[in-house]
Write a structure and sequence with these properties.
The chain has helices at residues 10-21, 51-63, 79-89, 101-118, 131-134, 148-158; strands at residues 2-6, 25-30, 44-47, 68-70, 93-95, 135-138, 143-146. 43% of the residues lie in helices and 18% in strands.
C-alpha cells in the first residue's frame, strides 16, 4: 500500500517505520511548512499533524480522492464540516481521538455499560472528570489543549 504521511512528528515517524517494516511504501511526507496541491500515487493518507494544519491536510486528501485516517486532536469544532466535505467528495474519512486498542475497548465497555444502565430508569450515569484530565500538554509544541480522550466516554454515553 502507498501511504501519504500528513504530519511528520513522533507519530508520523512511527507510522513510517511500521509501514515500511510491513512492506508498504511511503508515497509522500507532508510536514507543517510543506505546500502541496494534490496527493498522487497514494492509496491512503494518515494524518497526525497539528490542530492548525489538520483541516487543510484532510481536505487535501479528500480533494485528491485519497481516503484518509486522522488521529489529530484539537480541531473537532470543524468535524461536521469535514464529514460533509467527505460526502461531497465521495472519499472516505475516518477519525478517532485515540487508536489504542485498550482505549477503544474502554470506549466500547462504556457504551455497553450505558445500554445496561439505561434499562434501569431509577439510575443516572454521571461522569466526573478529574481536572488534571481536562487539559494535557501536546508534547510536540507544549500547547495546552482540551484532552479529547477524557471527553470521549462522556460523549459516547450521553449519545445513547
Amino acid at each position: 500500500m502507498k501511504i501519504a504521511l500528513l504530519g511528520y512528528g513522533k507519530m508520523g515517524k512511527e507510522i513510517e517505520k511500521i509501514s515500511l517494516e510491513r512492506g508498504h511504501s511511503i508515497s509522500k511526507i507532508i510536514d507543517k511548512e510543506d505546500l502541496v496541491d494534490k496527493l498522487t500515487n497514494t492509496d491512503v493518507a494518515i494524518n497526525f499533524s497539528t490542530p492548525d494544519s489538520a483541516i487543510k491536510n484532510i481536505k487535501l486528501s479528500l480533494d485528491s480522492s485519497v481516503p484518509i485516517v486522522s488521529g489529530t486532536t484539537g480541531w473537532l469544532k470543524n468535524y461536521n464540516e469535514i464529514v460533509k466535505y467527505s460526502k461531497k467528495t465521495n472519499t472516505s474519512f475516518m477519525y478517532s481521538s485515540n487508536f489504542s486498542l485498550g482505549v477503544n475497548l474502554f470506549f466500547e465497555l462504556n457504551k455497553k455499560l450505558a445500554t445496561l444502565v439505561g434499562n434501569y430508569k431509577d439510575y443516572n450515569i454521571n461522569i466526573n472528570i478529574i481536572p488534571v484530565n481536562e487539559i494535557f500538554l501536546n508534547l510536540s509544541n507544549k500547547t495546552p489543549i482540551p484532552n479529547p480522550i477524557s471527553r470521549t466516554p462522556d460523549n459516547k454515553i450521553s449519545s445513547i
